[in-house]
Amino acid sequence: MRTIDDLDVSGKRVFVRADLNVPLDGDRITDDGRIRASVPTISKLRERGARVVVAAHLGRPKGAPDPAYSLRPVAARLGELLGTEVAFATDTAGDSARAVAEGLADGQVAVIENLRFEPGETSKDDAERGEFADRLARLADLYVGDGFGAVHRRHASVYDLPRRLPHAVGGLVLAEVEVLRTLTGDPRRPYAVVLGGSKVSDKLGVIDNLLGTADRLLIGGGMVFTFLKAKGYEVGKSLLEEDQLDTVREYLQRAEKQGVEIVLPVDVVAAEAFSADAPHAPVDADAIPADRMGLDIGPKSRELFASRLADTATVFWNGPMGVFEMEPYSHGTRALAQALIDSDAFTVVGGGDSAAAVRSLGFEESAFGHISTGGGASLEYLEGKRLPGIEALAD
């Protein structure tokens, strides 16, 4: 893949597909991690005299403008981080976007409105996506793919647009791919993978693939209760995917045959309701009361997980250990993050809720080997899937 160092960008309009899909509370950004991650590539292009047109999506609007999903607050925050004024186009590929893009001088930056305000961005119809990509292509001379969180999507700005313009990979995507190649190639061992989050069905493919590469799988979060039920345990009112029980049993059997250690919690914090104020207490993982739900791994499990990570050389973590947004159920995720820091392993935090947890719980990002900006993209890469956005950049 060509990098931006291979492009002559001086005086050229460069379309940067970034990942600025940040959480908002109204128009207040609650976690600007993805915006900060986009700054190095944009700054490098500015320094080399590029006229930078930044594009991204935010949330899941229905293919039409929706003020709740406007990128205007994101553009303002990007300007603060860059230390320069950032122009904002009030549409995606219309009159405003064209005027803003054409009005840029060398080293200036603009953000166009949410790509998903256009139905062509996410369309499954090649012609509709292509028509939107054609309109986007008129905004720039060159394309840089730097939105790792979107490279697993066959969307117009990710897959079709780089086929219409001279293109290169941005520094963020390049770094992400290099880390993931380390994990899928020849990782230093022992290699442990920690998986959490709500649904086991979201991670079936990656578990299937990791049974052939990882030495240990540590399972927490809501998905663990399907594993516990598959072992014959009572899980009470905990999150459960009944339709995945047979698949999970097969994974447990395969892991045993292949010598892959699967580590499950030995206790969980069980509450009477999904609430921070509900009565809650640790209970053994094989004896969850029928009227309670597990919302975090328990204190004995925190110690167990830390002990199984202490001697590792490589760790990939995707998914919190509990409902970390509620303080009573944040301790498992906090303990896991600390265990990664305390280990001597190369630690990779796989984006999404895991990265959000690291920041919201007050950990220094520099304490980890790598914090990904793309949870879904990371998982699909580890699953062995081809990522459309990476294929387009390699073309």
TrEMBL record:
Chain residues that bind ATP: K203, G294, E325, G351, G352, D353, S354
Location in the cell: Cytoplasm
GO CC, one annotated term: cytosol
Example GO biological process: gluconeogenesis
Keywords of the record: ATP-binding, Cytoplasm, Glycolysis, Kinase, Nucleotide-binding, Transferase
Reactions catalysed: (2R)-3-phosphoglycerate + ATP = (2R)-3-phospho-glyceroyl phosphate + ADP
UniProt family annotation: Belongs to the phosphoglycerate kinase family.
Record-given protein name: Phosphoglycerate kinase
Organism: Streptomonospora mangrovi
